[in-house]
Write a structure and sequence with these properties.
This protein is mostly helical and 28 residues long. It has one helix and no strands. 0% of the residues are buried.
Length: 28
């Protein structure tokens, strides 16, 4: 069970999405 990582990854991912912008990320 991963107690550390998923929560922070989701938060960091959201922040990165805002900072970098969805245009830079590959379209899924």
């Amino acid at each position: 069970m991963i107690d550390f990582g998923f929560d922070k990854l989701a938060l960091i991912g959201a922040v990165a999405l805002i900072v970098i912008g969805p245009e830079k990320l590959p379209k899924v």
